Predict the 3D structure of the following.
Amino acid sequence: MTAVWALVAFVGVIIVWNAVFKRNIGEAMILGFVAVCAFVLFGGTVEDGSAWSAISGSVLDALQEEVTFAGLAFVFMSYLLTRTPVLDKLIDLLNSVLGRLRGGPVYTATAAGGIFGAIAHVGAAVTAAVGSVTVPWMKRSGVRPELAATVVAGGAGMGVTFPFSATMFILVGGLAAQGVMQPDEIVKPLAIAGLWCLGYRFVLSWFLVRRNGIQPIAAEDRIPFGRSLRSGWTSLLLFGPILVPLLLTRGPVADALGSYSGVSDAMKKPVELADGTTLAAQPYTMPDVISLITWIPVLMIVLVLVLGRKHLPRTTSGWWTAIGKAAPSFGVIGITIVAAFSAANLLGELGLAEQLESVLAGLDAPGWIMAIAIGVIIVAIAIPLTASATMAAVGPVAVIALAGAGIPAPVAAAAVLVFASTEGASPPSGAPIYVAAGIARVDPVKTFVPLLTYYCLPILGIGVLIATGLLPV
């Protein structure tokens, strides 16, 4: 159980250094990674390879993660937007329409998270698409930056709780291969489970709006719609960097482009699950070659450079000064992301998934106890891993364990996917946390406790209620 203790040490060191000693999250994440390195150095890896090779490889992989680039790109994008009036005009336009509604931007962020989640399915991409507009809008409306980042990151998991995500196919593929259930049996239960999760988020939004005293925009501060549209219609182009990648990766345009370019004819490698089951190779799709989380900030930066060119530096020295002012945010978020993914890679080398799978296989208890135990274990796995990696590692065995306790397999599968959807709200390693923090330009650690309290634990509870039949699906 070396990997399990390494995970405990990783989280424990971060909490102690950050919460007890009041040091910044960048330092805490580095020390947490060092703690995991100690387990590798003294205990070795599953494949008994070189410990130093495993450590260096994990860091290199983390540096090459697209979320690492995206987190830093969103910091820069957010900084540029504050230097230009482009976003201010868009927010004036949005306030003209929804500003009279108390907490309008919070509800909009929640609804948009559900819509984009059902389309994009990738947690960090959902956060990127929704947060690019709603986080600055919430801040402008008086919502604290850390709360704005929390709401957007907390909605990231909806990409997993609606059909038809890659995570869902990984899980049902393994179950179908073992004859547990057919792929189409999961669609209805998961769709209803997703609606339960979305409904909870709306109730939470209502609570947060009232608890934080968020008020409607004062009438004297709302520009009439016609005037705001005339002066700020170009700001609507900010939706382009979100919509264009979506159109190129989903729907008929994406299908036509995939066929024309030959992408649809290429095949992915087979996927081997932790129990030895191998899923057949699948065709590539446009989301495999066009990354939303990479292209949204890139296109947004380009558009802001064009629309806000009159308000941006025009000399090399001016740009050097401007970038220098954003450097502190780059440092904290960059170090935190790299340390988080490096530790996750090392925990994989230690065999975390396999060790927790053996724990799952040995469980034998009544259905409600099994649901709680399996939910806690999956949420723990989703701290360092993505939802897809979690399902590939332990998803099928978790569903089989729940089915063995008398829970119908499709219901169990929906509950397990709800458990895994906490990846975006599971500090300290959830990628959406750092994307949202980058957009809000806030210390990620300020979102940790709210995410656990408002999203991670309640979603775990919803999964348990679904598994036990108290929330029908």
User: Anything to note?
Assistant: The mean pLDDT is 82. The CA atoms of residues 90 and 233 lie 8 Å apart. The longest strand covers residues 271-272.
